Here is the input.
Amino acid sequence: MQTLVAFIVGLVFGLGLLLSGMTDPGKVQGFLDLAGAWDPSLAFVMGGGIAVGLFAFALAKRRTRSFLDGAMQLPKATQIDRRLVLGSLTFGIGWGLAGFCPGPGLVSMASGELKGLVFVVAMVAGMLVYEWIERLRAQKPPRHA
Here is the structure.
């Protein structure tokens, strides 16, 4: 049942991205072009997502199990640290350059767009490099001051 629900939710999300035009890198880059032909439509899509997320997280915080009886696993971190800031900057730069973030990139790839495929391959390569670096960091003995 969880797999079916995940598939349906992913399908609705992907259709929403297609219908809103968010799989078009030009739409994203138009939103980021504040000094040129600025396109504010992405702000409305993001606002809608934030509004839904606020209610969903408020409800999730009050529950111990998901609606399909899975364990509720919410983030525990509350601090803004160096890794969060650097990760956010890396994500934002990649988003601005490519015009894709993971969801629209996957939808674009699945719809046969070469740009989407290139983005997803680069995204997966970045994830693998991150995992490799994390493994190297875990193997290093701690430095003593």
